Amino acid sequence: MRKDLMVSADNLAERCDPNLFGFETTDEVKHDNRGIIGQHRAVKAMDFGLNVQNDRHHLFLTGPSGTGKTTYAKRKTKEIAKKQSTPQDWVYTYNFQQPDRPKAMPLPPGLGVQFAQDMEELMQDIEDEIERVLNGKPFERRKMEMAQQHEDEMKAKWEALEQKAKEQEFTIERTQQGVVAIPLNEDGEAHSDESFDQLPEDRREEVMKKSKELTQNVNEVLRLQQTAKRKLRKRLRKAEEQLVHQSIHGFISGMKDDYQEFSCIQEFLNELEHDVIKHWKQLLPKKESDEDQSKTFAGTIDMKQRYKVNAFVDHSSTKGAPVIYEIHPSYANLFGKVDYKSTFGSFVTDNYMMTAGSLHTTNGGYLILNAADVLAHPYSWKALKQVLKTGELRMENSYEDNEVFTKSVVKPEAIPLRLKVIMIGTPSLYQLLYRTDEDFRKLFKVKVDFDTDMERNKEHKLDYAAFVASFCNKECLRHLTKEALAKVIDYSTRLANNRKKLSTRFDEITEILIEANYWAEKEEEAYIHDHHVSEALRERFFRSNRSEQRLYEAIDDGTIMISTSGQAVGQLNALVVSRTGEYAFGHPTRVTARTYVGRKGIVNIDRESLLTGSIHTKGLHILSGYLQAEFAQNYPLPLAASITFEQSYNMVDGDSASSTELYALLSSLGKIPLRQDIAVTGSVNQFGEIQSIGGVNEKIEGFFYVCRKKGLTGTQGVIIPKQNVKHLMLRNEVIEAVEAGLFHIWAVSTIKDGIEILTGLPAGTKDEQGNYSKESVYAIVQARILNMLYTLSQQKGFDYQAVEEEKGVMQTDGDFAPWFHGRTEV
Asked: Where does the record place the catalytic residues (predicted)?
């Protein structure tokens, strides 16, 4: 049985000694902030990436889920950010020269909101003052005086014209057709058409001449009247503007004094003063008729709105540099949004209707993003790369909303951008972006790679204790006894798949703590004990192992054919791992091989049925390479074989069953029976060396459960690669069975080691002539191959002699392997 290859019970698992800890429960542990545990490489990369001052050294945190990438990114950036200066506020103001391009102004942190509030108060004061002075009695008297002066002047001109007309026997009348000069008769009444026609011709000509002259005089007076009106309006407007300027200048000057060190504000206030003087009427309260009239102008903006200041980015409450984890990186959330309001079928906006995005808010700080979420919004990803390359943050309309209505578009001034972007994603996503996106390679130059495990040493065990204590305090859970903590550490090693490692996938550890706390609470215990951790693990597996139990039932009732005793030719139990969501379990599956004379080589039935992946196909080619090298050095291999996973109807991939397939082929070739109470796992290379595989614990336990159900005989066991011994972290029930001699585990290095365990025969060694030692497995196989070659040579058209001369076929004493008669039939 090759006892020398058996793995002792001491090497089947690593158990943490609770006495290692200098405390009884974790509430005694000082859970100081030790930072992230077991990620030395990631910590160094993170420190470098966050502190290097370069616009293209952004960070990409990668690693399996559950290793604490997001939590660490947020905590580390906040630690650094609180030591840095708070960035500037940004405000947007109306652009008096280009109204569709609001101006961006940087201000010290906290001053943006203050300036916006001061502007609101200033404009209210200005409105009140303008209304007061323009509606006041002094200015009303002044307007009346100017109007009266205009009226007196025009009255004098009209009186002079009327006197002149009277002297010439005319009168001036105002009709619907205008002002006309009408001739009078001797009675001082206006001529009728009949009386005018009865006048002598010379008199009529004289009257017509005077009428024409008076008409010219009337037109001249009318022209002077219109000119005088325009002058009056100008005088009134100028008087109003002068009064407005006088009334608002003091307010604006006071505001300029408050912000005298900011040239951008000084310039804005100067422009605002001139604009208010021009448009002061629109600042006054509107009458109902004015409001109705204003509604007819679609697309216009309230004049008062243009003077508002948009406190776009406000850092009045920010301490240090800002840090934001944007959980929904849509275009609007990252780059801001311009709001619109509907006005009679058109949509208008202004500088006050713009909302900042995360990039604006974190400008001068740190923005954390989930890479998959960003890529789910293609406009976001493209625009993000653009702003990182240009260093300018612009607000533009996004096409994500598929908006089709008419808008008045604004293009705010760009804001200089300076920040660190930290993206978080899976290793496969990082590789995809690195290979396919040139911009990504140029911008995200710092890779922060998180590992899945760390060394299982005393220091890290104590780190685990601190982590558990901190988590229990944070989540208000019961603390653990030292025995329960030891159980958690052992479970961590199981997750790491290595007895010398601890898992750094802390989310899975925290889930067990939460569930163990439930069972402790149910028993009204003050602390979480080791049996609570065990119960949490059992229940966790139970919730997910319905498929596993159904499979074992099918094996037990014979629906799925698995033998755990006896011997069979060309048949062996392979071990595979199946997954249902997060739960993985191992189980046996029967591999069978049939061999016969032919030249087709090895045919994989599963591959022909399109049920295997590329890795499994590669493993099959390796088998061919091994057989060719081992048995066809001096003659061709006359082999045709079929091999399959019986009762397997799903896709199969991986090469961990390649050694099992090779054992089955050797058994079929030599018609040598293999033990059915042993299951096998292990990959093989072309030199016959057994290579490590994954899921070794699940595979061993899967076959153990099947054997236990059918009845343990004391001969059953599993053959595994020697390299996988360090990965063993088996459950107690398996270890106890091994200790009692009811179950066995062999660790092999070569195919020959395994074939000796499975057949009870020596594998055989090759002599100088290429013959294997008699009565060995390989000698039997060799003899069968030679007999198959002889059988093939008897076929018509096969020139065996030519092959023999060319290949130098090994000669025997008149027969093929004379010591092994009776095994020549196919």
From this structure: 656, 699
**Which parts of the chain have pLDDT scores under 50?**
288-289, 291-300, 402, 404-406, 800-826
Cα Rg, the chain, nearest whole Å: 48
Residue 776 designated active-site: no
Per DSSP, the residues of 32-80 read: ----SSS-HHHHHHHHHHHH---TTB-EEEES-TTSSHHHHHHHHHHHH
Q: Decide if 58 contacts 440 (C-beta within 8 A).
A: no
* Residues facing 179 on adjacent strands: 174
φ and ψ at residue 548, rounded to 5 degrees: -65, -45
Q: Exactly one of 76, 210, 461, 699 is catalytic; name it.
A: 699
CATH class as words, domain 22-36+451-544: mainly alpha
C-alpha distances (whole Å) from 673 to each of 500, 663, 669, 755 are 38, 10, 11, 11
Cα separations in angstroms, 640 against 392, 594, 755:
69, 8, 21
Instruction: Work out the angle at residue 425's Cα, subtended by the Cα atoms of residues 421 and 428, and round it to the nearest 5 degrees.
Output: 135
**How far apart are the C-alpha atoms of 788 and 783, rounded to whole Å?**
9
Q: Which amino acid is at 606?
A: D
Q: State how far the alpha carbon of 118 is from the alpha carbons of 114, 125, 276, 309, 664, in Å.
A: 6, 10, 17, 9, 88
Please give the structure tokens belonging to residue 570. Answer: 């060309």
pTM across the whole model: 0.78
Side-chain-side CA neighbours of residue 404 (13 Å): 0
Q: Which pairing describes strands 639-645 and 601-604: parallel, antiparallel, or unpaired?
A: parallel
Q: How many residues does the chain have?
A: 826
> Hey, which residues does 455 pair with through a beta bridge?
501
Pairing of the two strands 366-370 and 567-569: unpaired
* Stretch(es) of the chain classified as CATH 3.40.50.300: 39-87+318-448
185-to-173, 204, 212, 423, 759 alpha-carbon distances in Å? 16, 12, 18, 102, 152
Known active-site residue 699: yes
CATH number of 550-761+799-807: 3.30.230.10
Residue 739 CA to residue 494 CA, distance in Å, equals 20
Distance CA 489, CA 503 (A): 9
> What pLDDT is recorded for position 819?
26
Question: Coil, strand, or helix at residue 520?
Answer: helix
* Numbered ranges of CATH 1.10.8.60 in the chain: 22-36+451-544
Residue 726, token pair as written in the block: 């360090």
Q: Which helix (H) or strand (E) holds 348?
A: strand 346-348
State how far the Cα of 258 lies from the Cα of 349, in Å rounded to an integer. 30
Instruction: Determine contact, residues 777/670, Cβ cutoff 8 Å.
Output: yes
Give the pLDDT confidence score for residue 298 in this predicted structure.
40
Count Cα neighbours of 58 within 13 Å in the Cβ-side half-sphere: 27
809 within 8 A of 793, measured Cβ to Cβ: no
**CATH code 3.30.230.10 region(s) in the chain:** 550-761+799-807
Q: What CA–CA distances, in Å, run from 544 to 534, 538, 587, 704? A: 16, 10, 15, 19
Considering the candidates 247, 398, 503, 656, report the single residue annotated as catalytic.
656
Above pLDDT 90, what percent of the chain?
55
pLDDT at 796: 57
Burial track 383-421 (b if 16+ CB lie within 10 A, e otherwise)? bbbebbeeeebbbeebeeeeeeeeebebebbebebebbb
Which pLDDT score is estimated for 106? 96
> Beta strands of 607-716 (E only): which ranges?
639-645, 673-675, 678-680, 683-684, 690-691
Q: Please report, to the nearest 10 degrees, the dihedral formed by the alpha carbons of residues 717, 718, 723, 728 taken in order.
A: -70
Does the domain spanning 39-87+318-448 belong to CATH 3.40.50.880?
Answer: no
The SS3 assignment for 180 reads: strand
In this structure, what token pair is assigned to residue 104?
A: 């961006």
